[in-house]
Amino acid sequence: xxxxxxxxxxxxxxxxxxxxxxxxxxxxxxxxxxxxxxxxxxxxxxxxxxxxxxxxxxxxxxxxxxxxxxxxxxxxxxxxxxxxxxxxxxxxxxxxxxxxxxxxxxxxxxxxxxxxxxxxxxxxxxxxxxxxxxxxxxxxxxxxxxxxxxxxxxxxxxxxxxxxxxxxxxxxxxxx
Length: 176
What we know:
single chain; alpha+beta; 4-stranded antiparallel sheet; two-stranded antiparallel sheet; 3 helices; 19% strand
């Protein structure tokens, strides 16, 4: 984990796709309550060729990690997300996964609900990264994604920052 003075950065900064089928603005504030947010920020939502909605996440700072004291040391630390990024509004669906990957790793697994609108499950990190590479290629070929832009998995810091939703509590919905 980075020290307090270090910053977390994505190895490849996320760039907003320049050409997409639809864009909309929502009145919902982004990261309300964090040290760098303002109530005038708007969430930008873009939709790709698969119908995946991507939500803009503003750059900012947050306290990452556990709020517990372990062995006398507090394990939370401040992290700066230096570049805005887009994050999927929902999980990748089975239909989206099948269209890009041509596979159904959830088939035959226990406790899985099957259907094109259910989340794709039983996929590992490597397969997820390959999904991003293939989706990038498909979207570029269809001229919906500019050269230099790409889909990728969020870093651990980006994921926690988005999940905390600008709150200062242990969970996005409070401390309990």
